[in-house]
Amino acid sequence: MRHPPRLSRMLALLAGVLLFAGGLTAPSVLSVLPMAAAAEPAATAPPPVLRAEGNKLVDARGDTRRLLGVNRSGGEFACVQGWGIFDGPVDDASVQAIADWKANTVRIPLNEECWLGTANIDPRYGGANYRAAIAQLVQRVQKHGMTPVVELHWSHGQYTGNSAGCSDVHASCQKPMPNARYTPEFWTSVARTYKDDPEVVFDLFNEPYPDRATPTNAEAWTCWRDGGSCPGIGYEVAGMQDLLDAVRATGAKNLVLAAGIAYSNDLSGWLRHAPVDPAGNLAAAWHVYNFNTCADEGCWHRTLAPVAAEVPLVAGEIGENTCSHAFVDRVMKWFDDRGLSYLGWTWNAWDCSSGPALISSYDGTPTPFGIGLRDHLRALDT
Question: Which among 346, 349, 264, 350 is positioned nearest to 307, based on CA atoms?
Fold first, then answer.
């Protein structure tokens, strides 16, 4: 998801006055006081180790599972903007609030420059400090019995063509494709970190949009899979096969998600261009908002159903900009009817009229949009 302009302007204004005393968890610019420290509750049952089996996700016993939950945005932008690591609290109480919605999954967007600690990142928020903070959040998600999905959201590479999010070479906005300079290194590091923790799921790249740069969709799908010198993209691209190879070369067998083109809203060429996975543990990812092109049941029947018949399908982001939930209600019904997975965007206390925000407070108070997802997940749990 591209972040609401109102939020970016607010963050820019606040960045200059934010005081940070050090340590691994940055205070939120959207909350006045941190949540009070509380005794750590007893751990719940751990999340399952998931694998792709046919077109289903299954656990170690072979039982079918679904990823149902939320995105926790912040780790992709706060660090590169120079004011912290997360946007809002990520302590135990805030993660418990997600679990209280009966979510079983939390998707955690990351920034490759922050993870790698490149020279443009404030070291307080990058490198070892960033990686440690992400590890703490992953562990809290697991402790509450939820599956963590770590995902590359913002990446390096200068792109100023059609639909460019920014002109910056650094990882300060969504780029059309990952880059050969840093992204394989990023995934090698992430996979080494979590290869012995198979509960963690890897989502290779947030929202590819090579189709906005290339002359044809055929060229876009080739770029998506193979990378290299892609038409209209001025940097060397790392394709999905490159990234999957980087993960598997470490010995990591974790479940991997690969999202389609058109900001992950187009899966029409996914089956023909799917990267080859020697571990056989690959699923398709898709995003949908009410303003996307493929935003009705007819398109879902034509383009999603064939993919879901062959491989597990995860809607990594679902949302709408209406501050209501009529659209996501339709999405959830379509996915429920087929036993598929979905995650709401986003568990951040933003103004839901400026972007799809599920909550108005990190205690789990829902927005009118978030009420739809919360009540639906709780009903599924009964």
Answer: 264
Bridge-partner residues for 53, per DSSP? 56
- The C-alpha atoms of residue 91 and residue 133 are separated, in whole angstroms, by 11
Cα 292–297–303 angle (5° rounding)?
75
**Average pLDDT, integer, range 79-94:** 98
Taking the C-alpha atoms of residue 241 and residue 98, their distance in angstroms, rounded to an integer, is: 33
Q: Which helix (H) or strand (E) holds 313?
A: strand 313-319
pLDDT value for 382:
56
DSSP helix/strand/coil, 243: helix
pLDDT tens per residue, range 333-365: 999 999 999 999 999 999 998 889 999 999 999
- d(CA 152, CA 15) in angstroms, rounded, equals 23
- Are the C-beta atoms of residues 172 and 80 closer than 8 Å to each other? yes
Q: b/e map of 215-248 (b: 16 or more CB within 10 Å)?
A: eebebbbbbbbbbeebebbebebbbbbbbbbbbb
Helix (H) / strand (E) element for 341: namely: strand 341-344
Question: CA 362 → CA 89, 105, 142, 206, 359, distances in Å?
Answer: 7, 17, 19, 24, 7
CA distance 202 to 196: 13
- Give the Cα separation of 28 and 212 in Å (integer): 34
H helices of 120-212, in order, are 127-143, 183-194
pLDDT per residue as tens digits for the range 9-56: 333 333 333 333 333 333 333 332 333 334 445 558 999 999 999 999
- CA quadruple 30, 31, 32, 34: dihedral positive or negative? negative
Residue with tokens 């995650």: 343
Which residues, in sequence order, are CB contacts of 127 under 8 Å at separation 6+? 114, 116, 117, 121
Residue 379: beta bridge partners?
none
User: Regarding beta strands 282-289 and 313-319, do their DSSP bridges make them parallel or antiparallel, or are they unpaired?
Assistant: parallel
Q: Can you give the pTM of this predicted structure? A: 0.90
